[in-house]
Amino acid sequence: MRIDAHHHLWDLSAVHYPWLMARGVPRFFGDATPIQRNYLLDEFRRDAEGFGGSVHIQVGAEDGMAEARWVQSVADANPDWPMRQVVFCDLTAPDRDAQLAACQALPTVAGVRQIVGRAPGEDAATGTNALLDDPRFAEGLREAGNRGLSFDLQLLPELMEKTARVLQRAPETPVALCHAGSPHDRTRDGLAAWAEALRALSALPTVTCKLSGLGMFDHGWTVESIRPIVDTVLDQFGPDRVMFGSNFPVDSLSSDYATLRNAYEALIPDAAKQAVFGDTAVRFYGF
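Above: the chain's sequence. Below: its structure in token form.
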């Protein structure tokens, strides 16, 4: 079974997304205007032709549990489409354990996500990088793992070595590195620095890497421009720790789904395709 291991859905009448509906606010991934509309499972399934299941990733809802319950209702209404979800949890909150318990009450929940880093300018404004210095964050990572939940990690290359030290304090927690660690500097030197920093995470056996979201920092990407990223990820992690994710509909700002899928089909060796397009995600997210 082919799995898209990183995508989003939203019904703007059911759940409110402040970041998505902001007008005239430039974001690191581009102008959100084209995606300020409902993106529901039926459309995603048409986009993801050839796939048989997916992983829904939380995406900044005003109320994370409202989003999680809505996604659960979508899964319940579409039993022919296997879907797991990763939900928001503030691992530093006083009610962290209650949040985790509420998440676990939903059958589709496989893991949690709390974004450490998005983009340099935005991180400077939001201060999310400070999570790495908060002992409650490491404690929350351990508790998630103790409960059988994984953690989806979104961050920047500049934070990888520091993050690796934090993850070593939660050795039982499976971690999915989103968007190949967000290599935002696509110059030759920038990619070299990203690849070197990535070794701090790829050296940890608990970390699996997603080939996803590469269009957010380069709307003009091509097969050849992302080849070094794909090759490096496969080399450092091996196909059994790599999984494909479309990051749709956010990455629809840079290409259609078929173009994205075909690019990865061209770049991933045949011997690795079964793992990257399905088996790794099936195992990691517990399908």
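The chain has one domain: 3-285.
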